[in-house]
């Protein structure tokens, strides 16, 4: 009896779809807990006010930090949920700078973090949520994994049929010999304790895969360079 040989590409696609269904279910279950964490400081403050207690400055700052972390986590869950359901297949003509500014506003970046950006061309054919998620991951990582003032340069241009984007900061950079492992799910190589789950760059790689592209971490060119990420996406614009 003759048996058909399974198509490896089709099998991989089916495994990816099954994994995304699991991710979606996990995200759905986590959302309620994240919302409760975000509201917990408000509930405690209201209870204290009812009995005439004013929250001291220290705990108030801690509560504010808890809110911001919960809000960012909820945002990432929202983006991951959309990605798991649709893969960001629907595209439109979007302004790259607008998506960058959306990410900057959502992240509430430190005042001493400077972002310099240069884009050519200024618009591309892409899903705006996908592009915003890319900036959320890249800028968020740079802000969390660097101490002191952070300077980030973002450039994007068309080269050989690909959109080629580079982000470089002035921080500690990636560990020697770990340029590939930083994209593994649940990987954490920073010396700083950020509280993250180590999923940001793994999600970034999946976003790149969904657009037929690649993402890689590059070694520093000079002593002033920190982490450098290069993202290449297939040309998706319409003339």
UniProtKB/TrEMBL annotation:
> Transferase: present as a keyword of the record?
yes
UniProt signal peptide: none
Q: Which reaction does it catalyse?
A: ATP + protein L-histidine = ADP + protein N-phospho-L-histidine
Domain Histidine kinase, residue spans? 25-237
Classify the source by domain of life: Bacteria
Q: Name one GO molecular function term.
A: protein kinase activator activity
The EC number(s) attached to this protein equal: 2.7.13.3
What Pfam families does the entry give? HATPase_c (PF02518)
Keywords, ordered alphabetically:
Kinase, Transferase
Query: Which InterPro entries does the entry link to?
Result: BphY/WalK/GraS-like, HATPase_C_sf, HATPase_dom, His_kinase_dom, Sig_transdc_His_kin-like_C
Biological process GO annotation list?
osmosensory signaling via phosphorelay pathway
- Protein name in the entry: histidine kinase
């Amino acid at each position: 009896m003759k048996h058909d040989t399974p198509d490896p590409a089709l099998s991989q696609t089916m495994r990816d779809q099954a994994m995304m269904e699991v991710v979606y279910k996990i995200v759905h279950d986590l959302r309620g807990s994240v919302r409760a964490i975000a509201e917990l400081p408000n509930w405690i403050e209201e209870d204290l006010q009812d009995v005439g207690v004013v929250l001291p400055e220290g705990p108030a700052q801690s509560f504010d930090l808890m809110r911001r972390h919960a809000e960012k986590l909820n945002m990432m869950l929202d983006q991951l949920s959309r990605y798991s359901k649709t893969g960001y297949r629907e595209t439109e003509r979007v302004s790259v700078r607008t998506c960058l500014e959306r990410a900057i506003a959502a992240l509430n970046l430190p005042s001493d973090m400077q972002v310099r950006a240069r884009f050519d061309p200024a618009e591309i054919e892409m899903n705006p949520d996908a592009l915003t998620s890319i900036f959320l991951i890249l800028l968020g990582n740079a802000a969390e994994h660097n101490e002191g003032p952070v300077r980030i340069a973002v450039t994007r241009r068309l080269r050989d049929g690909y959109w080629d984007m580079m982000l470089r900061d002035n921080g500690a950079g990636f560990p020697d010999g770990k340029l590939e492992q930083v994209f593994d799910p649940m990987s954490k190589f920073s010396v700083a304790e950020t509280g993250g789950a180590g999923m940001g760059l793994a999600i970034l790689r999946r976003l790149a895969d969904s657009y037929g592209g690649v993402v890689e971490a590059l070694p520093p060119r000079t002593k002033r360079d920190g982490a450098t990420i290069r993202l290449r996406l297939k040309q998706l614009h319409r003339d």
